[in-house]
Amino acid sequence: MDAFFISVWILAAVINTGTSLTCTMCMSLNGANCVSTENETCKSTVTTCETVMLEFKIKENVTTALVRSCTRFPFDCKVPYRSFSGETFSFMFQVKCCDSDNCNTDVLSFPPRNSTKNGVQCPVCPVAVDATQCHSNGRNMECTGEETQCLFFAGKMLHPAGKFLQLAFRGCVHSDTCKEKIPPYPESRLEEGSTFQCSPGTT
């Protein structure tokens, strides 16, 4: 009887291994393409691969990243493009998800930033680190393009290094970013209890 159960266990392990999703895995920084023959086998609960592009601009310094992997945060696939502009920095995020082995080889590119003012104004303040509040003190910024909502964020966001950073900031945000309620980690990069509040701006 023991041999029977061992055989069943081995068979189940083989079947599970055979049906696990495999995704291309690589990362590059600052505009370089990310090409690799290295793959990773996803956890049994992960059903999609992803290609993610990020861009952070702080004053005149721009950092970009391209990552291919198993989908780390399922919420990413629901809102494929997001952007935010603050007083001294901006952020863009784009993702493409797919559900077959090593399918995440797409070359992504950000749409050109639309710098045309859209008539919306939002409260703004510099990014505050290790803070739970960020006061505009009556200062507003003029929003551009499709960033037609105002955003206030206060909470902990997962850094690529694996640590949560406590941040607070205000500014203009792309309207698509506000369409879905963001679930807490591990579905997204935001720790439970974080405030992600969208609101209409003034015109």
Automatic annotation (TrEMBL):
The keyword Signal applies. Pfam families: UPAR_LY6. It comes from the Eukaryota. Residues 20-105, 118-181 form the UPAR/Ly6 domain. Residues 1-20 form the signal peptide. It is found in: Secreted. Its main location: secreted. GO terms for molecular function: phospholipase A2 inhibitor activity. Gene3D superfamilies: CD59. GO terms for cellular component: extracellular region. Keywords: Phospholipase A2 inhibitor, Secreted, Signal. This is Phospholipase A2 inhibitor and Ly6/PLAUR domain-containing protein-like isoform X1.
